[in-house]
Amino acid sequence: MLPYPEAGRALGVPVEYSDAVPEIRSFSLDTRTLKPGELFIALKGERSDGHAHVPAAYAAGASGVLIDRERKSDVLALLKNAGRVAANLLAVPEPERAMTDLARYYRGQLSLRAVSVTGSFGKTTTKEFLVFLLRRKYSALATSGNLNNHLGVPIMISRLERSHDVAVFELGASGMGEISHLAGLIRPSAAVITMIGPAHLEGFGSLENIYRAKTEVVRHLPKNAPVVISDQDPELERVLRDSGKRIVRAGPSEGADCRLTDVRAADGRVSFRLNGVGPFSFPGHAPFLGMNAALAAAMACEWGVPLADMPRDWRDAGFATGRFRETTLANGIRVIDDSYNASPLAFAAAVTTFSKLPATGKRILVFADMLELGAEELRYHRELGERISELPIDLAFAFGERARASIEAIRAAGVPVSARHFPDAETLSATLAEIVRPGDLVLFKGSRGMRVERVLTRIKELVFSTSH
């Protein structure tokens, strides 16, 4: 990444205890995942203070550490007690700001092109499709895991190499100004904005503010830069109309620049055509992900990967855990893990697709609260329950106070769906274990903070006798 002397100059501090290690490999905030050669950034969090882990960082192979200068004597004492020697120590007034400043400085040394992917839902899938396509032609790096916030983006910048041609950054936000801050770091020359809807309303305050926040990225784009959006979001197009950027529309409408047609889910694959080219396909059962594929393809076309050159089989696109992934467990239960996150639009799409999948046994929906929806959270949960009541689902089990409104709405509809609310994931798991059987199809859905996957873990442990 950078030689330590250059990093010190960029931050305006000396490199203390300098040794022969020539360069910072990248940043790390966690000694458990730190790789040899990385710079360990000691941040003070709610649960842990990174300064206490400096000896462990050196033990794991850190080439240097960045610390709060007011904690320097504490850190040196810890190292002495642990029998460790300091090396390449950067003592700064504010470690988090210094990490950001160093990432900004390093990004300024690179000539690669960056594209930002933001929106309310579908960001990660779109990002994975896009980097898969761009790698047909370029050396590309993309955001990994959940490194899409004020801490994660600097880490991703630190992982860029001078050999990379392009970078795909997923940008997340829960409040105004965050996207603008992150875009200022990555210096994008293009953007993809996925569908926008009610998510993180608690931080944004209104749907109008979400549109304003997610489009903050355009202020950091060059004039006439491409901004790829869904043709199913007219409000987004309206907000961007006077942005001075070139709007590229992807989706099923006849006027779309990248038109999505013939979307089908069968035999464990989703197939589709783009501007008549194809069919393309990827593994899964969720046709609603076809929109994410179209957004990615439209952006790849903008950067010189034409539809004709794209592989027809997208099986190597990386699908993250917890995003509508179907598995048949060893005990014979079919599960769909869509537990990574939940917003009203994404939940409605997932449960509708789930209801259409063939099932030899019961269709069981296990879900929990959609978080950060602000003052209207109960309305969104009631509307979800009403939607579930219209679908051929046998059982709907939920936990979380907000999800109670969904269960009550299902019951009020007077439909044959067996709807039950539980005080917690453990109680739900115990009841579900008594009911679920091989051949049943179970969808797990909820906001990340609710950890619905705990129920899935319990179901994986079930063993059935041959008499069942």
Brief synopsis:
By secondary structure, the protein is of the alpha/beta class. It is built from 16 helices and 21 strands. Helix 4 packs across helix 6 (about 150-160), helix 5 packs across helix 11 and helix 15 (about 425-435) runs parallel beside helix 16.
Summing up helix and strand content along with how strands pair, one would put the structural category as alpha/beta
The CATH homologous superfamily name of the largest domain equals Mur-like, catalytic domain
Largest sheet: 9 strands, mixed
CATH architecture of the largest domain: 3-Layer(aba) Sandwich
For the terminal residues, how far apart are their CA atoms? 59 Å
* Overall residue-averaged pLDDT value: 91
Number of helices in the DSSP assignment: 16
Radius of gyration: 24 Å
What shape does the CA trace take?
globular
Write the CATH fold name of the largest domain: UDP-N-acetylmuramoyl-L-alanine:D-glutamate ligase
β-strand percent reads 15-25%
How are the strands ordered across the major sheet?
Answer: 8-9-7-10-11-12-13-14-15
From the structure provided, what is the oligomeric state, counting identical versus distinct chains? single chain
Low-confidence sequence ranges: none
Total number of strands:
21
What is the CATH class designation of the largest domain?
A: Alpha Beta
Structural domain tally:
3
Residues in helices, as a percent range: 25-40%
